[in-house]
Known about the structure:
Helix content of chain A: 25-40%
Oligomer: homotetramer
CATH topology of chain A: Thiol Ester Dehydrase, Chain A
Number of domains of chain A: 1
Number of strands of chain A: 6
Amino acid sequence: MSDEITPELAALVLDAQPFSKLLGARITEFEHGRAVLEIEAREDLLQQNGYLHGGVLSYAADNSLTFAGGSILGANVLTGGFAIEYLRPAIGRVLSARAHVVESTRRRALCRCELVMVDDDGEKVVAAAQGTITLLG
Amino acid sequence: MSDEITPELAALVLDAQPFSKLLGARITEFEHGRAVLEIEAREDLLQQNGYLHGGVLSYAADNSLTFAGGSILGANVLTGGFAIEYLRPAIGRVLSARAHVVESTRRRALCRCELVMVDDDGEKVVAAAQGTITLLG
Amino acid sequence: MSDEITPELAALVLDAQPFSKLLGARITEFEHGRAVLEIEAREDLLQQNGYLHGGVLSYAADNSLTFAGGSILGANVLTGGFAIEYLRPAIGRVLSARAHVVESTRRRALCRCELVMVDDDGEKVVAAAQGTITLLG
Amino acid sequence: MSDEITPELAALVLDAQPFSKLLGARITEFEHGRAVLEIEAREDLLQQNGYLHGGVLSYAADNSLTFAGGSILGANVLTGGFAIEYLRPAIGRVLSARAHVVESTRRRALCRCELVMVDDDGEKVVAAAQGTITLLG
């Protein structure tokens, strides 16, 4: 399809989101049916106990699901909604939100992501999300 | 209960969250079974089309649900997860996340919030969320 | 609108669902933006501990949300999905799934329901759900 | 662990659920971290258009997630809740609900399932779900 998003276009779209810039998000992988978004666990993204704030995780879920869906449906998509489940405190150096398309039709993509905290000595899934991305218009 | 959270304590907890300060969130109402969290729709919280970013909405859902649950269960709570549905683009001057407890047991509170964009000429529900808050320990 | 569903039509639609007949579901209230679906807690709808099975609750959530959305959008709708949170064991004589539309646009309705167990001495919310209903075509 | 569930015990638990017997559900695979539950698309499980009713899918999601979580946490678990997304009409001969544990802690298991309709000429994912299973007591 002519409107398939390239990794370069995906990076431009993310860069055009002021909120994603504020959080320092970057797309580290982008291919058909898959997108990975990463965020450094900066001091100003934490909650009161020193963990990455749940709202940063939910932002990363929302955005990585949308980019994964967009990798198949094109840029003109919206996120209908998603559900996120938190399993562990988000401790580590970098949050990696790894999203993929489970299944899609011509107008909708059912997507999931794992929210993984990466540290120098390994990584752990701390949360996971699922949502549907819809083609607009 | 001696560990019931006062509005003053709730404000202190929010203030101790660096990410909430980064977003300029404030608690504007807090009582038994109910919490309202507000955020100005600043330029740096938008997405590429000029709407408030979905990640800001999901942050506000997460945090307002947690404070509503905490208003009944006390400060020692965690958010198990939540589901958010987006209905409209988030356009307006202020986001008001209005959370309440639907029902609770001794250890869990089932909470909901409406995400409302307030503008000079009125307000609109743009999204809604539901989740469960659990007492720790 | 000419395609607004009457309570009589809603009852006919439910009656045309073999699975709803198998469960003995009936619509007890139906108006613009609201639908109530009830099910007797028959022996064959229970799980191994004698509570109403979670699958009966999730059926009632799914269907009551759809009827509530249809009460505004018309009969030609589909349920995009929903999230359900269980709070208590479902004990009682009758399950009452009380759904309403939180907010709607021309093509989508954001709906919620409370799943209430009714007994001779009162009633209790045992679960709650939220989902989006979409106009087809 | 002494309380690890065997496939035989899982089948007994399912058999002790009257609602699962009513639907003709059976466990066709059960191992550590994974459970598959199947249901024949009988006439009395359909909705008004001849598709398998969404409530049958949500039952299968609920139960397969619970068995997957129980395969790791033991028999004494409850389902906190789940989110289900419907992608396609459920057409086919058999519903296969394939659940697995994404990640678990000592007390909680984050589980997902794909809801697959199997027909003589192939199979299709028609919906997917995600939820958290919690150890009781």
